[in-house]
Amino acid sequence: MATTAGRKEHPISMRLPEADIAMIDRAAGLRGRSRTDFVRDAAVRAAEDVLMENGLIRMSPEGFAEFMAALSGPGTSVPEIVEVTKRPSPWESGYTAKR
């Protein structure tokens, strides 16, 4: 008979001002999520960002030299990006939103 490993969850308790709770609830509702799901996802996403910012990248001296050479070399344009940057802004093109 196979056994299933139990899911271990640990509660986190926070004291927040009523205005913060109201804002979180409103945003969670707009996403169709519970407060718990919304806060958990936001906290995990923020934690991942911090960890990625502080991640150590290791490479050989040869790999580092190649990396620096690529950064120091001339850039190449991406035609799709160039086209996007040449488009007029909505406020420059007379665009009006439909209501």
From TrEMBL:
It comes from the Bacteria. The keyword Repressor applies. Gene3D superfamilies: Single helix bin (1.20.5.780). This is Uncharacterized protein (DUF1778 family). Keywords: DNA-binding, Repressor, Toxin-antitoxin system, Transcription, Transcription regulation. Belongs to the TacA antitoxin family. The keyword Repressor applies.
